[in-house]
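Input sequence (134 aa), recorded before submission:
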Amino acid sequence: MSDYQPQKHTDFEFEDILKYLKRAKIAVVQEKYNLSMNREKNKKFSEDYNLTAKKIENIILNLEVEDFCYAVDNEKEEFSHEILYVFCSREELNYFGEYNEVDIYIKFNLIDSAGYLYIISFHEREKSISFLFK
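Predicted structure, token format:
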């Protein structure tokens, strides 16, 4: 049993997140990203709101620094060197013909060496969250 405890990080400047977000968006534009569909929450959310890859891309591309909440160490100890960034975006989405305002919880990891973005979480926000720059 390991003593590894992932830590939450909020010690960022506005400019830090701006630069990170710019690199993440470049990965999306270059189609160097993957949305984890093996996670049931992500899959159900995408199906319920009929989200296409293009719609998901647009949501990521429209993220602002003000949507940033916090970062956290990867929960998996073998990837403890990786920092995951959490954003929350409010979007109007189509739920079986009815449009609703939905808060989307988005957590991703940008592998700088490869310029590749792993979108780990992309689903409806489940609990209250605070924003670092709002």
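Checked by second reader. The chain has one domain: 12-124.
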